[in-house]
Amino acid sequence: MTNKVNVGGVNIVACPSINELIDTSILNSDGVIPGMAIAVNPEKIIAAKNDPNVMAILQSATVCYPDGVGVSYVMSKRTGSKVARIPGCELWERLMERSIEKNIPVYLLGATQNTVAQTHEKLSVLGVNVVGFKNGYFTKEQQQLVIDEIVSSGAKIVSVALGSPRQELFIFECMKQAPQTFFMGVGGTYDVFTGNVKRAPKLFRATNLEWLYRLSSQPSRLFRQSNLLKYIYLYLTNKV
Ligand code: UDP
Predict the structure, then answer these.
(1) Domain edges within the chain
(2) Is the Cβ–Cβ distance between 42 and 70 less than 8 Å?
(3) pTM value?
(4) Fold of 19-236
(5) Which protein residue's CA is at the shortest distance from atom 18 of ligand 1?
(6) What is the dihedral of CA 141, 143, 147, 149, to 10 degrees?
């Protein structure tokens, strides 16, 4: 049984660890539990409050998990027990490892051709059964061809790295045509996995300041992160 906590109208899975999230919400004895996982951070909660389409997508996900200390903190306060922050890139890597035991077929979509090919290579060496991969630079007109390729590959786990909200919108469409599959939006995960982009140093991660590191190395994120202040205000005034 998974415990879900409502934060700003979004029901988010409260788990003490990544493995527990995988065991309760993603894998079962037959393989995968079909659906879609979305990482939720304060920016997305604010976006959902302002835009009913974003809210509809979050509510259509089978698994919303807390990828942001602002969200896991509120959940821990509400439940009275520690709720782990689950970084999307760590969840994806663990899921890839766990897929090996059951030989679950995996499809990788998104990022540049070079990055997705390197990701495929690295996962294959580890023993992951990658049945197809494709870069994320295609037009709206080509989208149906991409979906057809995913469906005919027979993949049961599809990870999609197109950035938000495009990856969630893509998954929403693809899920209708592959209802037995588990989908996960992974943002810049392949870039980090292949070493083409660096994650924050350990000190920033351990002190929950990964967002500050990303802001200093990519100042254009300031606008997105201003929603963090709005989120804190809403939390303090009991509105999330
Ligand atoms: N990307 C893509 N197609 C596009 C735009 C972006 O495949 O048309 C990829 C990009 O190469 C990167 C990922 O999407 O690997 C987005 O990463 P970002 O860090 O912006 O995602 P976030 O997690 O911040 O939404």
Answers:
(1) 19-236
(2) yes
(3) 0.88
(4) Rossmann fold (3.40.50)
(5) 188
(6) 70
